[in-house]
Amino acid sequence: MGIGELLLLGVGLSMDAFAVSVCKGLGMKRATVSAGLSCGLWFGGFQALMPLIGFFLGSIFAEAIESVDHWVAFLLLGLIGFNMLKEALMPEECECSQSDGDLSVKTMFIMAVATSIDALAVGISLAMAGNVPIFTAVTLIGLCTFILSVAGVGVGSVFGSRFEQKAQLAGGVILILLGLKILLEHLEVLP
Hints:
Elements: H1 3-26, H2 33-62, H3 69-89, H4 105-129, H5 134-159, H6 164-186
Helix pairs in contact: 1-2, 1-4, 1-5, 1-6, 2-4, 2-5, 3-4, 3-6
């Protein structure tokens, strides 16, 4: 995977964190720089950590499933992408509330883990894809998530939740396309 693809992956993975950050911004009377930085650090840090863990877990099993690794990567990325699309297209169960502005350690830890579980599966996919510079990948994923989370708090406080659904749709499509690209490269349909 090249830098462009890794950057797209970072953007795709960061869409859940962006959506949650928008809700955080909506829940604040006034979004501050420190609130944006807090969201960025929590979400960006976990989005970088989880694929690294997944990569090392996937590397342990890579040899055992080498003949089907491209299918595993395709299925994991596809499932995560389709789940993001499904969540984006489902009617909202509840709107963002004033309590969404809570930046306590407990709340942020839970939200950071929840938004980065899919990144763990992506890390496994990256191990299966082979020839992925994992430290470059996790750095780009973390930076993308940090930047978009900080921006999400600002967007939420200014514009409301208009961008939440579009962000999840874009993230889902990106992950599905990256999974398809990995599969097609391994099947030698793409160079």
